[in-house]
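$ fold --in a.seq
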Amino acid sequence: MQSTTRTMLEQMLAHYDHTISKNEGGPSDVELMNARFRDLSMTVVEPMMQAFAEVLQAHGHETRVFGREMSVSPGGFAQHAETVMEIRPRRFGDNASDGFRIAFQMHTDCRKVLAQVTDCGSEHTHYVRPHDIHPLEGVTPEMVEAELLEMVGYVFGKVDPQASMVMPA
């Protein structure tokens, strides 16, 4: 082995060892944020989505609520942790969609939660409503409820453009 190759290898391994030793000392910031998001998802977001889903199902719409942990593929693609409610509205003529995904997604790079609606009918993610971004610390039951009401209203406005969403005062 050439001395320059050995030096480069030693530097790589020293960096790796340093990184591992930092991680062994406790959870990283990203791990702490994901744990906080997981707690909020289980105690606030998912129960609120389930409550909305029950009402939607009572009116004949298909729903599914689930969560996903953050993951990284071998290629380095990161899937953010998220809590999702899929809605498949009853058919309403040609304007009916294959469905929508309402999600609260943790973005650890900016320490914020993204609230978004995407269309399930396309192969690629297609945002059907401008998304909102909230600081992780600002995720409260009231915020989640308001976002869900707005996003569900948007979904059903897309299915029936003639429908008007009356928001309570």
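$ fold --in b.seq
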Amino acid sequence: MEVWMQELNEQIEKKIGEQKLPHYQTMILPQITADFYKMLKEATIGKIVREEYRMEDASMIIILEGERNRNGSRILRAEAR
């Protein structure tokens, strides 16, 4: 698991608790990251992309920031608020 994902999981766990974390890890985060990587793929090379994902129950916002480069794309920052 990448460092940014480990840190994001820790932030989510602090907000919602250990029991609800598996649901986020298996159902919500894969959809969010797939959507974000799609956005990065379509972005201009060198452009920083930032997106906020608000949970339907208003429990938190997940923020991802990344960039596309010549070798692909990478996530620079992930945060749960």
